[in-house]
């Protein structure tokens, strides 16, 4: 009797391929917020940290342009200040000239009034109250005039300045200068015939000296400093 060994039968399992399904990618909306934000310079550069320019030539050009602008602005300010000062000096000079002309007109009016006053006093004064005065001019020319003892010293000065070429009279009587006051000749000690020496008074206007110095001083030149 034959013994038969059973041989195990291997079953082959045939696997049928299944279709592979890929997940459909949904397009992201452009309106979704971004998760990463770009830091601002103030956030990632500490305060006081010097920013180093990688281009030294560019920095040098910028510094030169800045220095030029500062120098140009300073020169323009100085020139504007000089122009303002020049205009102010011209206005002051014009005002001084106007006041000087006004004083001359007033002086001329007072001299005319003094001549008329002395002429009238000669007719209204008694002969015993009259003085015979010899006026010695700076050119040694002599004038013989008669004045009243009540003639004011100021009137006498104005009279001499009105009838002679003396601009500012200085009267010398017996070695003493007759002051220019509203006092009569008799009050000053002149009671008889006398001789009065006329000199040109030293009249210097400080404003004229200051004006001449300003005109002689050269104007500073405009300087443009370029680095």
TrEMBL record:
Acidic residues composition-biased segments: 201-217
Coiled coil: none
Composition-biased stretches (Polar residues): 1-14
Low complexity composition bias: residue spans: 15-41
Origin: domain of life: Eukaryota
Region (Disordered): 1-48, 201-227
Protein name: Ubiquitin-like domain-containing protein
The species this protein was found in: Dreissena polymorpha (Zebra mussel)
């Amino acid at each position: 009797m034959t013994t038969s060994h059973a041989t195990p039968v291997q079953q082959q399992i045939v696997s049928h391929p299944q279709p592979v399904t890929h997940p459909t990618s949904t397009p992201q909306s452009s309106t979704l917020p971004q998760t990463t934000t770009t830091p601002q310079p103030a956030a990632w550069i500490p305060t006081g940290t010097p920013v180093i320019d990688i281009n030294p030539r560019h920095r040098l050009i910028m510094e030169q342009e800045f220095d030029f602008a500062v120098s140009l602005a300073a020169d323009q300010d100085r020139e504007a200040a000089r122009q303002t000062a020049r205009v102010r000096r011209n206005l002051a000079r014009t005002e001084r000239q106007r006041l000087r002309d006004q004083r001359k007109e007033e002086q001329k009016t007072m001299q005319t009034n003094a001549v008329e006053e002395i002429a009238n006093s000669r007719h209204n004064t008694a002969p015993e109250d009259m003085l015979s005065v010899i006026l010695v001019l700076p050119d040694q020319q002599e004038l013989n005039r008669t004045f009243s003892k009540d003639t004011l010293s100021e009137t006498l000065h104005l009279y001499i300045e009105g009838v002679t070429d003396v601009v500012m009279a200085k009267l010398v009587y017996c070695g003493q200068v007759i002051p220019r006051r509203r006092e009569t000749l008799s009050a000053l000690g002149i009671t008889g015939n006398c001789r009065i020496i006329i000199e040109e008074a030293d009249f210097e206007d400080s404003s004229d000296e200051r004006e001449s110095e300003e005109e002689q001083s050269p104007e500073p030149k405009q300087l443009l400093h370029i680095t």
